[in-house]
Specification:
This protein is an alpha/beta fold. The chain has six helices and six strands.
Length: about 160
């Protein structure tokens, strides 16, 4: 709900849709967003967007620090890429390689992440590039400060 809340604040009036496997997370999002978003419970690796949201494609799909918590994250990435409408984009941010963080701090951070069942996906960028090729999307990526995060954008070219 936090990301949808921020999107709503920056782009008022856009249609918002949210998916989560956790009913508790959906309750929290619903509390924050009220009737400003359509929320549904589902598995990010395989869901029917048309049945859940009344549409098969979206102008923007956002995955924020979630692939590191989804066991079959590669399937979730591919599923998300298929949902991007022509002219739209899939925006991904997740933990990066962490290489710029000094050794002891990196070890502590990895321990903390493991405690919360977070797995750094070191091959995220390579898989995103592969998915982009598979679905005819353009890709751009940027490594964040000290490698703490990676930003990836997969763009679906406009038709015509």
């Amino acid at each position: 709900g936090r990301n949808l809340h921020r999107i709503r604040a920056h782009w008022p009036g856009v249609a918002l849709f949210g998916l989560d496997i956790s009913q508790e997370m959906l309750k929290s999002a619903q509390h924050r967003l009220g009737n400003d978003a359509v929320l549904a419970q589902g598995d990010a690796t395989s869901f029917d967007a048309q049945a859940l949201f009344g549409r098969a494609r979206f102008d923007r799909v956002v995955i924020s620090f979630a692939l590191s918590m989804i066991p079959d994250w590669k399937a979730a990435l591919a599923q998300s890429a298929q949902l991007v409408a022509p002219g739209g984009a899939l925006h991904i941010v997740d933990f990066g390689d962490l290489r710029g963080i000094p050794g002891p701090a990196r070890m502590a951070l990895n321990g903390w992440l493991n405690h919360f069942h977070v797995t750094v996906r070191h091959e995220l960028l390579q898989n995103a590039v592969s998915v982009a090729r598979q679905f005819g999307l353009r890709h751009r990526a940027r490594r964040g400060f000290l490698g703490y995060y990676t930003l990836i954008r997969l763009e679906n070219p406009p038709v015509g």
